Amino acid sequence: MVGAPPESEGALRVTERIHANLPLMSSAMVKIAELLLDDPSAPIEMSITELADRAGTSAATVTRFCRQLGYPGYVQFRVGVATDSGHGEADDNRWRAAMSRTLDPNDTADDVSRTLLNAHIRSLRATASVLDPQVSARVAERMATVAHVDIYGTGGSSAMAEEMMTRLYRIGVNAHAWGDVHAGLASGSILPQKSVAIGISHSGRTKETIEMLGRAKSSGAYTVAITSQSASPLAQVADDVLLASVPDRYLHPADLSAKHAQLFVLDLLYLLVAQHDYTETVARIAATDAAVASHRRPD
Asked: Can you give the pTM of this predicted structure?
């Protein structure tokens, strides 16, 4: 559940919260989301019953929808919508120019830079807003206390898996990254029961990653999916799901804002694992730093 909407300048707007929470919504709530994405100012003029009727759902579902976004009820949700609508035409034009369109061939380098920055910031904020801290802590606890961690990912997600493996290994976690499906299936088939297997896929539909995580699960491993879709095939294989949310697709399916969302999730897990035995973590990092010190050039 998302917390109360923050009042800071960097708080997510209502439409951003809707995009970020879509993977978590029931089919009834998705109807409300689609209505509001098409007509964001509708709640300003409608009662909760009117909005429910127009969306083809119930007032109780509208209330659950508001709470899913982090608002205590419909009244507070309407205030959020009204606040967003009050930013003015100039701000709305800037929003459309920087946030709500793909890049134009004639955009300047400054335009591209601004759009890209906003895309990545939105991805991180959206991920932070939907990431369940209790699930994150549970996954990290398992990772810190098992004898073996497998991390699966292909394509761009393979780089994420390799990065996580390297960081975990430095603090004493016996982690292995697999981007090749043959090697990953082989590893997954011989995992001891008290192992953790993590599959990384933005879409959650990468066949090879699904197969590797499924094989690990059949061996008795505790399985985790890091994906943007809670109802995806990869998520269905996993015991737990951590959402790396990307509200909009700005550039193309391989947009690096998706990778930054994945890195946010992985970095959180790494830090939580490191906390598990902080003294030992510090000692291991110091030892590895000392081992490579002679290969660093002096200032």
From this structure: 0.69
Determine the Cα–Cα distance for residues 241 and 261; give it in Å rounded to an integer: 14
What's the confidence (pLDDT) of residue 252? 46
- For the chain, residues with pLDDT lower than 50 are 1-10, 88-101, 249-254
pLDDT of residue 78: 87
Count of other CB atoms within 10 angstroms of residue 86 = 8
